[in-house]
Amino acid sequence: MFTFEPEIPMSDEEFRLIRDLIYSHCGLFFDSDSAYLLEKRLAKRVQLHQLSGFRDYYHFLRYNRKKDQELSDIMDVLTTNETYFFREAFQLKAFTQEIIPEIRDAKAKAGDRTLRIWSAGCSSGEEPYTIAMLLLEMGGFAGWHVEIIGTDISQRVIQQARKGVYGKSSFRVTDEGYVRRYFTEQDGMFRVNDRVRELVTISHLNLLDTNRIALLGRMDVIFCRNVIIYFDQAARKTVIDSFHRVLRDGGYLLLGHSESLMNISTAFALKHLKNDMVYQKPLPPGGRP
């Protein structure tokens, strides 16, 4: 027996209303060529809430007492949260072999034994846990206070990240030695061990919420990979400006390899490392990180 989902057409006006509401909430932007995508992905939400069409859904998003939860839930529908451990190996090599040694040496000379790293848009947690494992492998942080903060706008992936339990697809490029040292197998899945989890905190955060970002405190390194591709130019500027404010002088910003700061910001210097090109917040004249 076949079942057919009824088509729910989205008018041009409904598209503009819903698109602008989503944009003001989180910076995700859909141009007119993406109208069909928004219509297709949100049609199931209209059906789920037993609404008559997208006009009613717009009013649901604006005025219903569950509107905040719905806006959070549709982030999963509108974005791709696909990720895995040790993604973009050459960038991670630059992180462990060049960026962290530079920061560690400079801070040790200054008597500062703190290291704070932000994984912005951490999805289900593979990135912050990868960073923690890399730091544990490096060693040299005895007596240091190391914090890795993972944040995401999706409550669903935050819950996954906090559980720290993963299937095999998350390990597609992971060396078997890391799995043995840092995970415990449970019913065919793999749980991140406590020594890794102790370095990582996971929180909900909208990257357009500049007030909450300011509360995070100063960072030494920010990972924000494959996130700003979902934003329009204005939202990208807002997010990158926030990153600049919370990064320490000399701190590093690591974007995805399809992303750049061209036409977004001139406040960072593009640094050519041996293993990768990354962005750095310049030091003040004569200053140290």
Automatic annotation (TrEMBL):
<dbReference type="InterPro" id="IPR026024">
    <property type="entry name" value="Chemotaxis_MeTrfase_CheR"/>
</dbReference>
<dbReference type="InterPro" id="IPR050903">
    <property type="entry name" value="Bact_Chemotaxis_MeTrfase"/>
</dbReference>
<dbReference type="GO" id="GO:0008276">
    <property type="term" value="F:protein methyltransferase activity"/>
</dbReference>
<dbReference type="InterPro" id="IPR000780">
    <property type="entry name" value="CheR_MeTrfase"/>
</dbReference>
<dbReference type="InterPro" id="IPR022641">
    <property type="entry name" value="CheR_N"/>
</dbReference>
<keyword id="KW-0808">Transferase</keyword>
<dbReference type="GO" id="GO:0008983">
    <property type="term" value="F:protein-glutamate O-methyltransferase activity"/>
</dbReference>
<feature type="domain" description="CheR-type methyltransferase">
    <location>
        <begin position="3"/>
        <end position="284"/>
    </location>
</feature>
<dbReference type="InterPro" id="IPR036804">
    <property type="entry name" value="CheR_N_sf"/>
</dbReference>
<keyword id="KW-0949">S-adenosyl-L-methionine</keyword>
<protein>
    <recommendedName>
        <fullName>protein-glutamate O-methyltransferase</fullName>
        <ecNumber>2.1.1.80</ecNumber>
    </recommendedName>
</protein>
<keyword id="KW-0489">Methyltransferase</keyword>
<dbReference type="Pfam" id="PF03705">
    <property type="entry name" value="CheR_N"/>
</dbReference>
<dbReference type="Pfam" id="PF01739">
    <property type="entry name" value="CheR"/>
</dbReference>
<dbReference type="InterPro" id="IPR029063">
    <property type="entry name" value="SAM-dependent_MTases_sf"/>
</dbReference>
<dbReference type="GO" id="GO:0032259">
    <property type="term" value="P:methylation"/>
</dbReference>
<dbReference type="InterPro" id="IPR022642">
    <property type="entry name" value="CheR_C"/>
</dbReference>
